[in-house]
Amino acid sequence: MNSRRPRRPRAPWTLRRRLVLAVVGLLALVSVSIGLVSVAILRASLLDGLDQQLSAAADRSRAVLEGHRDLDDGAPALFLPTAEMILNGPAQPPGTLALVFDGTSISSGYTTVSGDIAALSTHQKEILARQMQPSRAVSIDLGGTVGDYRIMADVNRDGVLYLVGLPLAEVNGTAAQLAIIVGVVSLAGIVVVAVLALWIVRLALRPLQRVTETAARVAELPLDRGEVSLIDRVPAADTDQRTEVGRVGSALNRMLDHVDVALETRQASERKVRQFVADASHELRTPLASIRGYSELTRRTGQDLPPDTLHSLGRIESESIRMTGLVEDLLLLARLDEGRDLERGPVDLTSLLVDVVSDAHAAGPERVLGLDLPDEPVHVVGDAARLHQVFANLLANARIHTPPETTTEVALSVLGDRAVVTVTDDGPGIPENLQATLFERFARGDSSRFRGTGSTGLGLAIARAVVTAHHGDLTVDSHPGRTCFRVSLPLG
Ligand SMILES: Nc1ncnc2c1ncn2[C@@H]1O[C@H](COP(=O)(O)OP(=O)(O)OP(=O)(O)O)[C@@H](O)[C@H]1O
Ligand SMILES: [Mg+2]
């Protein structure tokens, strides 16, 4: 089994961090380059100076060796040139190193700071012996306490090979000192620049922050429903076309203008549709009442009419009653959408529920119906008739859309500052595919149509609209064996 946890994707770097790091990185690169170049130039120039001293020392050494030979009567066979002759010669600075090879033996040594002559180790001599060809000055590491040397080998007119060297310690020390100074100054510079860059970038990105905040505020508005207008805009200072952020800000403002116009148009067309539905429903009421009235009148008075005609008249009457209900529902919905047609007064939910339940009991006396009320009366502020309609619909649903043996329980409780009414039944539940659209207009289960209960699918849409207009919530939790509608309303 693979027990490794999946790696979380790394959070992307913010623009601020990227800019600051880029500035700091570039500065570090430039500082290192400048440091390296200046140290290299300084070292080359110091080496140049040292090489001149070295060639002067070599000239002196040659003169010393030849001077000694001339003192020895000019008999080259008997004359033994040594390194000490060079080291004891005039004007040789402390640290001078010398090695002399007369064809048979090697002598070597170097002067210490105190002016004494110290011997070289065998290994050091071996290293130097490898350089014993006349050549230009070279740098060499002799290790131990002797360290780095600049050396130059030459041969005098008697064929004696000699080598002189001067310590590189001073050149190296000066170069190292410069490297340290450049390093420290660069580091301090980088820290200062990082702080300044952080501050400047933050300042530069502040307008972007304001644009983002505006966009975020607008994004939170519920644009899909109701009357909303977009008054939020990016401040004028952040919409200057000459800056990048300004262009973003002004583009956002233009987009908001467009969205605002589109919203206006949508709201206007919605208003028109609502007005049309309200007007149509209103206009339909009168002819419907006439149809109902005339059919009822004819049915009552025309006793000698054939039974078929009487039956048809009865159907006309019942359908016109159903249609009146439908038209009333549509009118109510249109008015609720407009945000009007709600009375506001104290409503005693306890007695309202008692009424609703006794009505429901009268409508279906064979049904088991329970009511659970708190000891104290519960009051809300709102429209008693509309709230009555909400609960009546919930109980009618529990009666119409469930088999006869189903039991229904109505309960009222107080939760914090809210009154909560639940209507629960142990029926077959609301079909899964209907639940998502249950509170939409004309949403019905198939069974309702088959049963010809006269259901329209507007009941729950109205219930939710009424409850929402009361600043409450209507929710449902349904599965086979339990359906619970929950209405929560702010306490009065
Ligand atoms: N308690 C319930 N048990 C099972 N199904 C339900 C229940 N309540 C509602 N439904 C389903 O939800 C649908 C929508 O209910 P809604 O009250 O909106 O409309 P309706 O009852 O069909 O018609 P109307 O209430 O307008 O006369 C119903 O058709 C029914 O299929
Ligand atoms: Mg209903």
TrEMBL record:
Annotated PROSITE patterns: HAMP (PS50885), HIS_KIN (PS50109)
Reactions this protein catalyses: ATP + protein L-histidine = ADP + protein N-phospho-L-histidine
Protein's cellular compartments: Cell membrane
Gene Ontology CC entries for this record: plasma membrane
GO molecular function: calcium ion binding; phosphorelay sensor kinase activity
Leading EC class: transferase
Swiss-Prot/TrEMBL keywords: Kinase, Membrane, Phosphoprotein, Transferase, Transmembrane, Transmembrane helix, Two-component regulatory system
Cofactors that this protein relies on: a divalent metal cation
Residue ranges of the TM segments: 178-201
Gene3D superfamilies noted in UniProt: 1.10.287.130, 6.10.340.10, Histidine kinase-like ATPase, C-terminal domain
Domain HAMP intervals: 202-264
The protein's name: histidine kinase
UniProt cross-references to Pfam families, sorted A to Z: HAMP, HATPase_c, HisKA
Residue ranges of every copy of the Histidine kinase domain listed in the record: 279-492
Record EC number: 2.7.13.3
Annotated PANTHER family: SENSOR HISTIDINE KINASE TRCS, SENSOR HISTIDINE KINASE YKOH
